[in-house]
Amino acid sequence: MYKLDDAVLVRIVQIIQEAMLTGTDCVDYMRLMELEVDNGGKLHLTEHYKTVVEKEYETLLEFAEKQKQLQS
Hints:
3 strands
């Protein structure tokens, strides 16, 4: 039996929110999640996946800032 780490649950909520904001399907984002099992049987996000998500957020924030400047 496996249980999800709290960070995984938070990420699932973030994915749903992102899908709602962008009008995209959250299933595709969920398929991209990378999980690994610890010794206690909990599923955690991989370090690689966390890095990918952080880079995506940086890109989105840069895009939003550029859009904001264009509208000013």
